[in-house]
Amino acid sequence: MVNLREINFSFVFMRYNEIFIFMRRFIFFTCLFILFVSQTNAQLPTLKKVDGRTQLIVDGKPFFALAGELHNSSTGSIQNMETIWPRMAEKNLNTVIAAMSWELLEPTEGQFDYSILDAMVQGAEKNHLKLVILWFGSWKNGNSTYVPAWVKTDKKRFPLVKNKNGNELNILSTFSVNACKADSNAFAHLMAHLRETDRNHTVIAVQIENEIGTMDMASTYMNMPNGIMRDFSSPANKAFAGQVPSDLISYLKKNQKNLNPVIAETWSSNGKKEKGTWEEVFGVSKEDTTSNFNEHFSYLTDEIFNTWNYATYVQQVAVAGKKEYNIPMYVNGWMKQPSQRDPGLYPSGGPQAHLIDIWRAGAPAIDFLAPDIYEISIFDKICQDYKQSDNPLFIPETRVDAAAAARALYTFGKYGALCYAPFGIDGGGFTNSATPNEEYFRMVYGALKRLMPYLQQYAGTDKCIGLFLDDKKTTDSQKLGDYNVVARRIMLGSAQALFGTSGEEQKQENLASGAIIFQVAENEFIVAAGVGSISISISKPGVNGYISVDEIRQDKDDKTYYHRLNGDETAFGGATVSNGEVKIFRIRM
Questions:
Q1: DSSP 8-state secondary structure symbol assigned to residue 302
Q2: 21-25, 84-88, 489-493, 554-558: range with lowest mean pLDDT
Q3: DSSP secondary-structure letter at 445?
Q4: What average pLDDT score do residues 332-346 get?
Q5: Four-point Cα dihedral 380, 367, 262, 393, nearest 10
Q6: Average pLDDT for residues 511-536, to the nearest whole number?
Q7: Is 298 helix (H, G, I), strand (E, B) or coil?
Q8: Opening angle at CA 193, ends 192 and 194, nearest 5
Q9: Concatenated DSSP letters for 197-251?
Q10: How far apart are CA 493 and CA 423, in angstroms?
């Protein structure tokens, strides 16, 4: 029998006490680790649905990218980009969009050089900027110029697109399994490196490829038919003659009530077939002779086929990247334009608005599709098209002139855009370059930075609107609650006759003007407006005028103060801005 008297109970209790302390510490540190991981994941940039609108969440808050895209080669060396970051901060950007190319990341197969990537992230972070990375992988503007030399020089392993005549083009084929695997592998390494090194989440999104699709640049700029509305290589022709993938058919069936009208009509007019070749399901491709640009869709079946193959290729790249680091990823598109009506004159297969459903079916890992808008005559149509199908508006490229600066106010106000980015914001490039002394974006973005709390709360809701004026549109109006808000150009010629306005001001009369207006209380509004001359009037029946109009200014210590306006300064409207200025107002009715 065990003699209880011989047992050292103090020793037993000591051992149990040690175990208890160990377990308590284990649980404590485990909870700390779980909390750390959950907080880290919560801080990852992400997209979130709030009251029916998609928000980009950065550092736990809604974020609007007051952005600019650098020229393609600006990040081609560490030395060249060193001066760029402080200049972008001085322009009041909060986000820079910049390229990381496959050829610089993986110059030798399997050997990765992260020095350019690290310099980009560190340069942006040091200057309190967020960063959107452009992955120039298999394609940029349709061509495959940014792939590494070991890809460029091995056409047998990495086959190219062929046109109708059997001629190879400098475009990797979507049917190149090796290219897709290599691109996916390189992109996965890039994202894994960001996961390990970008501790403060400076990178908020990644664009996969750039303006992809089959096209011939020379033919495009000469506006000549080029016969590359799709890949005509042997594997592509075999696939085109084969069955439409069941995944695409399943998507069309599941979403047939909400399909883009172009896709819905094309599928429906051919009997909504659930199996068959591409031409059996979508019809025989042919030239569209419709004179109306908005209704013109040539060689549509070829374009749908090409789009599916680009989308499924990009899907594999995106999945590989998101497995390593899951932040928002998107694809941008070179827009179909009145002078480039047919696929192949613009990149055929890219994320055009009428092809959003094909992209959704083929690349569900892509979070949204983004339009590059340079053709201003269709600016609003493009914005409206890309707001459809629950796709948030994110503009990674647009013009960089004074009118584009004014249009930023309008675009954030009217469409609740998540990003607005003039291309060539750093200047010095071959095309679309910012003028070195250009101040308009600095002023507009400075105003929008000060209004960020209002953007976060109201953008994309019925409490926020945008207005825009140019040579073709000298008045603009929109309802805001029970009020009617009207923007008018101040006619400086008339003002000169009345008050002796300087001739120099009259020379600037043609500058475009923009405005963003928030209704922050039943009878209170915040207005930012400017670049060209503009006046904003707010009215409704039964309201005789303003209680007060204040210009919101900042003193030399960057503190906000309210400067009361009245008399001549409100004679043209509650908020009045002269040429070359951007101002913020508080108006109480």
A1: H
A2: 21-25
A3: H
A4: 93
A5: -10
A6: 96
A7: coil
A8: 90
A9: H-TT--EEEEEEEES-SB--HHHHHTT---S-SS--SHHHHHHHTSBPPHHHHHH
A10: 34
Q: Tell me which amino acid residue 116 is.
A: I
H, E, C per residue of 109-160: CCECCCHHHHHHHHHHHHCCCEEEEEEEEEEECCECCCCCHHHHCCCCCCCE
Torsions phi, psi for 154 (to 5 deg): -130, 75
Q: Sign of the C-alpha dihedral, residues 427, 433, 436, 441?
A: negative
Length of the chain: 589
Closest CA to 278 of 312, 245, 244: 244
Quote the tokens at residue 97.
């969009």
Whether 220 contacts 340, CB under 8 Å: yes
Q: Where are the beta strands (DSSP E) in 276-418?
A: 329-334, 368-373, 394-398
What CA–CA distance (Å, rounded) separates 344 from 216? Answer: 7
Q: Measure the CA angle with vertex 372, ends 371 and 378; round to 5°.
A: 80
Phi, psi of 193 (to 5 degrees): -65, -40
- Distance separating alpha carbons of residues 207 and 65, to the nearest angstrom: 14
Q: Is 565 left (phi over 0), alpha (psi -120 to 50) or beta?
A: beta
pLDDT tens sequence across 292-318: 999 999 999 999 999 999 999 999 999
Residue 473 confidence class, pLDDT cut points 50, 70, 90:
very high
Residue with tokens 């009428």: 354
Number of neighbours of residue 405 by Cβ within 10 angstroms: 26
The model carries a pTM of 0.90
| pLDDT one-digit tens code per residue, 412-426 | 999 999 999 999 999
Which residue in this structure is represented by tokens 């390494």?
189
Cβ atoms within 10 Å, residue 203: 23
